[in-house]
Every structure is written in C-alpha cells, then in structure tokens.
Specification:
The structure holds 2 protein chains of 2 kinds.
Chain A: H1 10-37, H2 41-64, H3 69-99, H4 122-125
Chain B: H1 2-25, H2 29-54, H3 60-83
The chains are: A mainly alpha, B mainly alpha.
C-alpha cells in the first residue's frame, strides 16, 4: 500500500505522526483555554481561529502520514479547506460582533471601521471620531469617498 | 501508539469541556457560535487521532462533511443574528 511517507522507516513515520497528533491536541487545548479565558468576542475569535486552526492542521497532517495515499490526499484537502474557510468565518463573525456592539470600542487602538460599519446604537455612533485622536495620521470622516481629497 | 491516542484524546476532551463551559456561559449568541465552531473543529481533530492510530479510514469522508458543516453553520448563524435583534 502506498503511503504519503512511503520511503521513511515505519518507526520514523509513527513517531512523527505521534508528535504531530500530540502537538495538535495541545494547540487545540490552548485554543479552547483562550476561548474560555479571553474577555470579549473579538479576542475569543483570535483563540478560536488561530490556535485552533494550527491544532487541527497538525492533527490532519499527523493522520495523513499514517493512512493510504488517497485518504491522505483527502485529509490534505480538508486541511486546505480549513485554511480557506476559517478566515472567512472569522471575518464574518468579527464583522457581526462589531456591528452588534459586542466589541468594546474603548479597548481599540485603531478603529478603522468607525464611520462605516458602526453599531446602530446612537451613543457609540454619535462620536465616531474621538478614537482617531491618538494616532491622527488619517482623517476619519464618515464619508469614505472623501478620504483622498485633502492629501 | 495507544498511549499517544489516549493522551491526545485526553487533551482534546479537556479542550471540549472548556469549550462547553464557554458555550453554556457565553454572554452573547456570537460567543456560542464561536464555541460551536470550535467544538466541531475539536471533533475533526479527535477523528484525526482515531484515523491515525486505529486506521479508521471510513472517518475520512466524515471529516470533509464536518469541515463543511462547521463553516456553513457558523456563517449562517452569524448572518441570522446580524439581522434579528432579538437573537443577540
């Protein structure tokens, strides 16, 4: 039976696979810990989309080393699919979090979405430009089309 | 290899318990969506361990379906609660 790592010794492949599986499980645990411990939705997305993805990619690689070649290809396809979908899902969830006011905007250093995607509640939308004063290298006006006009 | 499976599955189970705590607690629906997505990902990782150690190659198509399902579920739920105020 042809395998992904056919020419290596069986012991080497088994050891590499075991290390990959354990490291992947450890990263999954760290991601879950971050999901539990981080304070708001946006920071929880960091834990879920980065640590978790690395963990599952390592696990998939560890499994792909030990199965016959067609299955290994399918597993690598799943890994590729994770790489495509996780950023998209994270972006959508983060955007919804911002729009529904789940992001504590006083903790943001740069708020590039201030005038464009603000939450609908009036007190946060009333002063969209006071977050830009700290790093005032870009004009933060609500109309995105007028940004290039002055410079 | 069995010890590796036990250790990896133990780590993943601990992770699943932590995620379940967040799923129950999560103050907003978005936190619960993220938690469910992570739970599906943990399932994928656990199935990987089973595939690698016990050669359960019948699980491989299940992985494809799970990866698709987690993505579509998270996207759909997020878009839904964006539209409906009472679900937040």
């Amino acid at each position: 039976m042809t395998r992904l790592a056919a020419d290596g010794g069986a012991v080497v492949v088994a050891t590499a696979s075991a290390v990959l599986l354990l490291t992947g499980a450890l990263f999954c645990l760290l991601g879950a810990l971050g999901l539990l411990r981080f304070p708001d939705t946006a920071s929880r997305l960091h834990a879920s989309s980065k640590a978790q993805t690395l963990g599952v990619l390592l696990s998939l690689l560890g499994a792909a080393l030990r199965v016959p070649l067609p299955y290994a290809g399918l597993l690598l396809l799943v890994a590729l699919f994770q790489l495509f979908t996780v950023p998209v899902a994270g972006q959508v969830v983060g955007r919804v979090a911002y729009r529904t006011g789940a992001v504590d905007r006083s903790t943001l250093v740069v708020d590039e979405l201030a005038g464009r995607l603000g939450p609908p509640d009036p007190e946060a939308a009333a002063e969209p430009d006071d977050t830009g004063n700290g790093s005032a290298d870009e004009p933060e006006d609500g109309a995105g089309g007028g940004r290039r006009r002055e410079s | 290899m069995n010890a590796v499976a036990v250790a990896a599955l133990a780590l993943l189970s601990a992770a699943a318990v932590l995620v379940l705590v967040r799923l129950v607690r999560g103050p907003r629906s978005l936190d619960r969506i993220v938690a469910v997505e992570v739970l599906v990902t943990l399932l994928v990782a656990g199935a990987c361990v089973a595939i690698a150690v016990w050669e359960y190659t019948t699980f491989v198509p299940v992985l494809v379906v799970l990866a698709l399902l987690g993505f579509i579920g998270a996207m759909t739920a997020a878009r839904l609660i964006e539209e409906r105020e009472e679900l937040r």
